[in-house]
Task: inverse folding
């Protein structure tokens, strides 16, 4: 994606934001995501992304298995079939961008 900020209205990426590049459906597999989160002292992981029922969901459950508290940002996941997004958001904990902004 050329412009990650275009994916979610109101989401802004800063130059100081840490980026982790993934190659597998599960973002933890074959990447340094676990190390980055652990070193940052993260407890919660807010997920956004494409292919909700595959990539996002596999990362969600792996985050849970690794001891994090994962949530999916409402309106920030996509799939080729919108019904898959609805199913994923129905079975996972979700959070709104507004509620994240208020918690800062």
Result:
């Amino acid at each position: 994606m050329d412009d990650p900020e275009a994916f979610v209205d109101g989401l802004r990426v800063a130059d100081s934001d840490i980026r982790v590049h993934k190659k597998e459906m599960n973002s933890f597999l074959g990447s340094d995501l676990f190390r980055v989160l652990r070193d940052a002292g993260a407890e919660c992981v807010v997920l956004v992304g494409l292919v909700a029922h595959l990539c996002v969901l596999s990362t969600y459950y792996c985050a849970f298995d690794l001891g994090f508290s994962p949530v999916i940002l409402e309106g920030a996941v996509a799939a080729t079939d919108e019904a898959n997004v609805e199913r994923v958001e129905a079975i996972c904990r979700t959070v709104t961008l507004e509620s994240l902004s208020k918690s800062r």
About this structure: Residues 24-102 form a domain with the Rossmann fold fold (CATH 3.40.50.850).
